[in-house]
Amino acid sequence: MTTIETKTTWTARNIWIKKWNKEAVFIEDRLDKYRSVWVPRTAIRNPQFKSKRDFGKDSIHYIYDVEINEEWWKANVRYRGFEFETNNGHRKSWWS
């Protein structure tokens, strides 16, 4: 009997956590590159707290540097599409 080893790839990312519970954290991208999503805690490791941002109206975000399971990220995170970005940094986009 042969066993197949699967190697998990972990990628360092800066995430903005808006909510959390025992099983998952809700992350939000403030730059609109990907849609907000619940990430299971098993797909995250080595969290390091960076800062806290208060946007008013009960909207507080906690910013962490974490390592995220790259296979889970590619399979579950939906990116928003951008046609192009102007040279002064403004994005002209279409929503996926």
UniProtKB/TrEMBL annotation:
Protein name: Uncharacterized protein
